[in-house]
Structures are given as C-alpha cells and as structure tokens.
C-alpha cells in the first residue's frame, strides 16, 4: 500500500541518468515516459511504471494527472534571496543611460540595498524572503540556493545567513552561500584588502555554526580583481567551503579560468567569457550557471554563449539570479524561455539545466533534480501536455501542483472569486 499514487501522467520526465552533471551532448538527451504513473511512500519515490501497471497498485491517496506533464521539482541554483528594500528608483536612472556599475559607483545599486538590509530586522528579512520563496514555489521550484551579500559588515552578513536558516520552515529546501565579498562598502572605500580581511575573518564562525556551504565573490572590474578573488576563495576552500564565483559578467577578466583552477562547483554569469574559458570549462568539473534574466533586465543584447559552452562539451545550468537590482523575478520558467529564445538552447538542454545540473551546481545532485526510486518525491504536475510547451508559452506560470517530499505544497487556484 503506497501513500500516494499519481496516475494518468501524459508525459513523465524522470531526468534519470548517471549521478553527475550532464555535459555537452548529454545535455540534449532526456528520457520521456509516455502514459506513466508514479507512487510515493514516506516522502520518497517508491515506484515508477506505466499507467496500465498502476491499475493493480493500492495507495491511500490517488491523484489523476489528467494526461499532463510531470517533472522533477525545479532547482534554482543562484539567488540573492534575502535583502531589505527595493530599487525601483533606479529604473529612471537606467533609462537616462546610467550603467549598472555607474549606479554602484555613486553609492546606489548593491550599496543602496546594503543600507536597507542593515536597517531591517531579522524578522523583516525573513518575512520578505518568505514571500519570494512562495513565488518561487508557485513557479515549480523545490530546492533553491540563497546568498548573503547585502550586509557587507559582520553583523548584517550573519543576520542574512541567520535569515536563510530561519527560512527552513518553508517547503522549498534552501542551500546557503556566503557572499560577503559582493561589493566594497563605503566605510572601506579604497581599502579593498581590509574589507576582504574583514569578511575572511567571518569564515570560521560561519563554518562552526554551519551557516553556509558555499562561498561566492563578485569578481568584476571595479569590484574584486581576479587576484583578490583567488586569494579570498583559496582561503575559503582551505576552510572546507565549496566555491562559487560571479565571473565575467560585464568584463572578460578571467573569472571563469579562476573558477576552473580552484575547482569551483560553479562559475556564474559568463556573459563576457573568453574563448579559452569556454574550452577549459569542457574539461573541468565547474558548471556554468547562466543568468539570461540579468542580460534581459539590464537591457543588453549579448547573452552568455550557452550554445557554444554546450557545443564545446561544458555543463550548463540556468537561474533567475533573483535580486533587487539586475534581475527582479522569481519566474524560473521565464528564464527557461529566454534560454530557448535568446541562447538557442534546446528544450532538452533546458530541462537538464534546471533539474539535474542545477542540483549538482549546489551540491544536491544526490537528492534533487531527478525522480528515481528512493529519491525524494519532489515533483511538479504541470498544466501542459509536454515539456516543450513550458518554455514555448513564455512569461506565465504553467505549474498546477507542486510536491515536496511527497506532500502537495502548492496548488494553483482558478483565480475566480
Ligand atoms: O548577480 N552581479 C552582482 N550581483 C548581483 C546583482 C546584485 C544587485 O544588483 O543587487 C548579480 O547580478
Ligand atoms: Fe548573482
């Protein structure tokens, strides 16, 4: 007797395969099971088979998927989830022609969110982030990475990481990253070294309190150089953290090559990645986390070369980069559409990117991104008949039901009152 049986699945994507990220051509392959069924026991997938075989199974609860698509819950590998305030005031500046880095140099941008985050209480931060998580869930996300990085002082960085910890009551499972090295705060202007030392001094405390698994840095012109990033991340690695880098977002500094050198789990952004970086990614363990929502939102035309990275043999994942400045959306389905339309990724590559590869990019490859017997029953029943339809019909949400550990945690309402 199973706890739950999902019957009459029109198309089931289990995303099953080897227990490692999908690279290059592998990203174009997925197994599609038509007319399938899936059973859950104690929060885990207990059985997967044909709709026909399911007739003889017994379950305490049965749900009819009405011939629709079922996939693993989406995995979101890069968000700046916790912050105070909003930045709609920057829209007019951007329209006047001020660039992202110019706004930051004038004490706006990230630094304006820093002021708001320092002023917010832990409870306020948790409440605000909780609302964003609800939105992520409504778009089908069941596991999500969340970064700090709007404190830029010891107290507030810890407050952000505490907020991420406190959010573990939300159905979405969180993976925490310390991004203290996100920008140089005004009080350290001209003293980048001193600031990085200050953040480095936090690493032991973060480790001992288990407040983050990964350490990230914004390696960018006018922010942190490749050499500063190398020294900082090497220290974090020595202390046992996994490594991530905001790399080659605006200028081709070589952050990708640095990520590969340090065996970072992911190199994120890569809009300005070099040819050499693309080649080296293919031979490396580092996953390219691409954030086309940022390119779109910053009003640029040149997207990260996801097509070349995959064609050369690399592993790609996709993310919203949700944050209050460069990508203000929790809609990972929109990002899937941008990958389809602006990066020329195929639907198969996109599904591998937002499930299996996203899970590996945040150290959850064993438990998230694939549906197989014994794995957590995190899945989405879509209001779509096939997997191509989801990125094709863009800008709206196609989720109908979202399950986490076998429990239905989101159901779309009809909207009518
Ligand atoms: O990933 N590039 C740096 N950090 C974020 C943006 C943060 C912000 O503007 O608040 C990003 O795009
Ligand atoms: Fe980011």
Summed up, what is this model?
The protein has 417 residues and is of the alpha/beta class. Helix content is 34%, strand content 23%. Strands 1, 2, 3, 4, 5, 14, 15 and 16 form an 8-stranded mixed beta sheet that branches.
Please give a structural write-up.
By secondary structure, the chain is α/β, with parallel strands linked by helices. The chain folds into 2 domains: about 110 residues, Urease, subunit C, domain 1; about 290 residues, TIM Barrel (Alpha-Beta Barrel), CATH 3.20.20.140. Helix content is about 35%, strand content about 25%. It has 16 helices and 16 strands. Strands 1, 2, 3, 4, 5, 14, 15 and 16 form an 8-stranded mixed β-sheet that branches. The longest helix has 17 residues. The chain is globular, with a radius of gyration of 21 Å. The site of N-(iminomethyl)-L-glutamic acid has 13 residues, from helix 4.
Say which CATH homologous superfamily of the largest domain is assigned.
Metal-dependent hydrolases
Query: If you compute it from the alpha carbons, what radius of gyration comes out, rounded to the nearest whole angstrom?
Result: 21 Å
The second-level CATH architecture of the largest domain is Alpha-Beta Barrel
CATH-derived topology of the largest domain: TIM Barrel
The parts where pLDDT drops under 50 for at least 5 residues are none
- What's the shape? globular
Q: Could you say how many structural domains there are in total?
A: 2
């Amino acid at each position: 007797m199973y706890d739950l049986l999902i019957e009459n699945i029109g198309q089931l994507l289990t995303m099953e395969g080897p227990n490692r990220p999908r690279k290059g051509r592998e990203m174009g392959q997925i197994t599609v099971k038509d007319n399938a069924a899936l059973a859950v026991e104690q929060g885990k997938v207990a059985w997967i088979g044909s709709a026909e075989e399911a007739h003889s199974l017994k379950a305490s609860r049965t749900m009819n998927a009405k011939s629709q698509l079922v996939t693993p819950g989406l995995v979101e590998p890069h968000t700046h989830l916790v912050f105070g305030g909003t930045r709609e005031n920057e829209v007019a500046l951007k329209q006047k022609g001020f660039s992202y880095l110019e706004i930051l140099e004038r004490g706006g941008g990230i630094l304006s969110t820093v002021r708001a985050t320092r002023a917010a209480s832990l409870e306020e931060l948790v409440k605000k982030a909780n609302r964003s998580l609800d939105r992520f869930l409504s778009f089908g996300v069941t596991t999500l990475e969340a970064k700090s990085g709007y404190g830029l002082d010891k107290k507030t960085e810890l407050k952000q990481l505490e907020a991420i910890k406190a959010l573990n009551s939300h159905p979405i499972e969180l993976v925490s990253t310390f991004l203290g090295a996100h920008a140089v705060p005004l009080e350290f202007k001209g003293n980048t070294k001193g600031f990085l030392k200050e953040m480095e001094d936090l690493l032991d405390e973060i480790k001992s309190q288990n407040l983050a698994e990964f350490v990230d840095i914004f390696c960018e012109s006018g922010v942190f150089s490749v050499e500063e990033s190398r020294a900082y991340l090497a220290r974090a690695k020595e202390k046992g953290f996994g490594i991530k880098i905001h790399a080659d977002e605006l200028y081709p500094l070589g952050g990708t090559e640095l990520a590969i050198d340090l065996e970072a789990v992911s190199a994120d952004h890569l809009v300005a990645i070099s040819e050499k970086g693309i080649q080296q990614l293919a031979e490396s363990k580092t996953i390219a986390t691409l954030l086309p929502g940022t390119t779109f939102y910053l009003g640029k035309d040149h997207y990260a070369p996801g097509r070349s990275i995959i064609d050369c043999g690399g592993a790609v994942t996709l993310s919203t980069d949700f944050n209050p400045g460069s990508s203000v959306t929790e809609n990972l389905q929109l990002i899937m559409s941008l990958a389809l339309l602006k990066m020329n990724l195929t639907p198969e590559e996109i599904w591998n990117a937002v499930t299996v590869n996203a899970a590996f990019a945040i150290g959850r490859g064993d438990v998230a991104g694939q549906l197989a017997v014994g794995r957590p029953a995190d899945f989405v029943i879509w209001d779509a008949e096939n997997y191509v339809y989801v990125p094709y019909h863009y800008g709206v949400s196609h989720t109908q039901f979202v399950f986490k550990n076998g429990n239905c945690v989101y159901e779309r309402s009809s909207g009518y009152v």
